[in-house]
Specification:
It is a single chain. The protein is α/β, with parallel strands linked by helices. Helix content is 36%, strand content 15%. The C terminus is likely disordered.
């Protein structure tokens, strides 16, 4: 098949694809280059940082398959994909554990003041008696979007002795039972905001969740809480977050792996705040994760080329609005799908 790779994936996976298919790379290409290279392609492979607009997709008349190495789909015109009957397959599972672990790395760094302590000692200041942190044990971890990633964050929190609560888009008895088995008590958004010592955000970005965490939501948070966003930048109003952190009456600090504006040349409005940690959307960037995602992509394209798409044997992704051609690759369990990836205002 004629494959266009739009984002970095594991090199060994690219080599394996090239052995069996006509593979072209458009990593880092500008709009004009993308339009030219996509013209005869049948398969697109991409991750975050690439926007598949209707205009761009419309320039690929032979397109039959889109593979997303991850879980988000806010950067794809799904209406266009559905209207053309193009199969859209995600590979959400491998990155979920990596993002969950990254959330915990950020949580620990915030709780123990690791970055300020590191900076001080590099400047020759011995601040042993000034940097006083907090234990995670006994604290409340609130999860907005307790789906595939959020539930794994909850499992880690429970293992650390935290009281874990979470909310989802479509709560119900079965969802509550599935989460309870993972150490997460299902509740609503209001309780999560009011009681969390650490608020970890893992919902998809859609019209309902855009600016979900605005000034009003931040004002409802527990005084002294920490906020973490590993969902999408647009879920948190960064201007409101900056004001809340500067005010200090509710938020003790924040950590963001996703941002409203990403890529070279952008500077976060939170960049000058010492109690905010910023990472460049690297939650799923581990050697192990990238290798597994690459292997899945190779298998998906191989199966599709043989007219036996493995993903098609599995249930659609949680958001039914994406249509019957929106599929998840194997290893995303029915329980994870039931929990959902989205959250709504309560």
């Amino acid at each position: 098949m004629r494959v266009l790779i739009l984002s970095q994936i594991d090199r060994s996976a690219v080599a394996r694809l090239a052995e069996a298919h006509d593979v072209v790379s458009a990593i880092g290409a500008n709009e004009d280059e993308l339009r030219a290279r996509i013209a005869d392609r049948e398969v697109l492979v991409f991750r975050s940082g690439v926007t598949l607009s209707a205009d761009l997709l419309g320039r690929a008349p032979e397109l039959t398959l889109i593979v997303r190495g991850g879980s988000g789909f806010d950067n794809v015109d799904l209406d266009h994909v559905r209207s053309r009957g193009v199969e859209f397959v995600r590979v959400p599972e491998p990155g979920a554990r990596a993002v969950a672990e990254h959330a915990f790395a950020l949580m620990l760094a915030l709780a123990r003041g690791l970055l300020p302590a590191d900076r001080a000692w590099r400047d020759g200041r011995w601040v042993k008696n000034d940097v006083v942190g907090y234990l995670l044990r006994g604290k409340t971890l609130g999860i907005i979007g307790a789906g595939n990633i959020g539930a794994q964050v909850g499992e880690l929190g429970a293992a650390w002795g935290m009281n874990v609560i979470g909310c989802v888009a479509r709560p119900g008895p079965e969802v509550a039972r599935q989460l309870q088995r993972r150490g997460v008590r299902l509740t609503d958004l209001d309780e999560v905001l009011r009681t969390a010592d650490f608020l970890s955000i893992h919902c998809s970005l859609n019209p309902t969740t855009r600016n979900l965490i605005d000034a009003a939501a931040l004002a409802r948070m527990k005084p002294g809480a920490f906020l973490l966003n590993l969902a999408r930048g647009g879920v948190v109003d960064e201007g409101a977050l900056r004001a809340a952190v500067l005010d200090g009456s509710h938020l003790r600090g924040a950590a963001l792996d996703v941002h409203a504006a990403e890529g070279n040349g952008h500077i976060s409005p939170l960049a000058d705040l010492p109690n905010v940690i910023l990472t460049p959307h690297i939650g799923s960037t581990t050697v192990d994760t990238q290798r597994e995602i690459g292997e899945r992509i190779v298998e998906i394209i191989r199966a599709f080329a043989e007219q036996r798409p493995a993903a098609a044997r599995h249930a659609p992704a949680p958001d039914a609005a994406t249509g019957s051609l929106f599929l998840d690759a194997p290893a995303n369990t029915a329980a994870d799908q039931a929990l959902g990836l989205l959250t709504t205002r309560q």
